[in-house]
Amino acid sequence: MGIPNEEAIKQFRSLMEEVDDEQLKNTFKNMHQGYPTETLVRFLKARDCNVAKAHKMLVDCLQWRIQNEIDQILAKPIIPVDLYREVRDSQLIGLSGYSKEGLPVIALGVGLSTFDKASVHYYVQSHIQMNEYRDRVVLPSATKKRGRYIGACLKVLDMTGLKLSALNQIKLLSVISTIDDLNYPEKTDTYYVVNAPYVFSACWKVVKPLVQERTRRKIQVLQGCGRDELLKIMDYGSLPHFCRREGSGSSRHCGNGNTDNCFSLDHAFHQQFYDYIKQQASLMESVSLIRQGSVHVNIPEPDPKDAMITKTIETEFHKLENQNGLSKSLNGLKVGL
């Protein structure tokens, strides 16, 4: 049930044409950016081509967008800029370039993201803004440049620095994952995992069988920094800075200064991104109306299967933590003897 057939798409389209709520229609237009059929296909894929389930998922998504004013979120900058810089320094994500096929390459510093410089609401706001900027600006620009529809990106996940202490971040990561799964399905073509330490490998071995086959096929765990494999699908200039040489160390600081570090606010992508949000706020004359505070977004209930995966990760981390503690105790005993 991988690719929706024409009949399923036709049925789904008919159901959406029956929607007479103007707000739902408007937010759907803002979401599909001129490609309604491709959007329907994404939701069908996310629900294994079940039209009724895909329709419910999409309507729930549109209602979530209306209730949380997602269409206006790109006009709500995180201010002051020093606070936004702290968010960027602790939530490592950036656009490093494009694949040879024209897909945006999104880099994520999973292992070194600390999420400890601001409230949860700021991180959720920042993540949704990144999603919306990708969908409303980056992907349409890539589509125009390539002359064909580009509706998804590639993600390179750097596990450098991943430790058992990351257990403290699982709740927030689960929230972000739930938002993506329910409201931005099928926006990632492939996930490339690089610089994976033992902690990741041990957890992935247990979690992998629980992940849906559709998602599992998208995940590729590469050797080391993944440079040689990634160079088959993108040019050197589009490689995330942490993939450019083996043993590059911290994904936070390697590269030739902050302008090469796609996580940094000084990187061209983030400068353009933040400037865009400020411009949108100015156009809406909303800057003076924004109280200094985060945007609070309702978090949808996660799919029971996803909740089970999160619980499994927590359990596995606790096991590793206990094993690590026992190992330290035994080492200490040896030293004492």
Description:
It comes from Carpinus fangiana. The protein is an alpha/beta fold and 337 residues long. It has helices at 6-17, 22-32, 36-46, 51-67, 81-90, 120-146, 170-183, 198-207, 213-216, 227-230, 268-283, 304-336; strands spanning 93-98, 104-109, 153-158, 188-194, 219-221. It has two domains: 6-67, Helicase, Ruva Protein, domain 3 (Orthogonal Bundle); 74-282, CRAL-TRIO lipid binding domain (Phosphatidylinositol Transfer Protein Sec14p), CATH 3.40.525. It is 50% helix and 8% strand. It has a five-stranded mixed sheet with strand order 1-2-3-4-5. α7 links the parallel β3 (153-158) and β4 (188-194). The longest helix has 33 residues, at 304-336. The chain is globular. The termini are far apart. Residues 326-337 have low confidence and may be disordered.
**CATH fold naming of the largest domain:** Phosphatidylinositol Transfer Protein Sec14p
* Radius of gyration, in angstroms, nearest whole number: 21 Å
Low-confidence stretches: 326-337
Number of domains: 2
Q: Estimate the global geometry from the Cα principal axes.
A: globular
Task: Supply the CATH class of the largest domain.
Answer: Alpha Beta
- What average pLDDT do the residues reach? 86
Pfam families: CRAL_TRIO, CRAL_TRIO_N
Domain CRAL-TRIO: 80-240
Protein name: CRAL-TRIO domain-containing protein
InterPro entries: CRAL-TRIO_dom (IPR001251), CRAL-TRIO_dom_sf (IPR036865), CRAL/TRIO_N_dom (IPR011074), CRAL/TRIO_N_dom_sf (IPR036273)
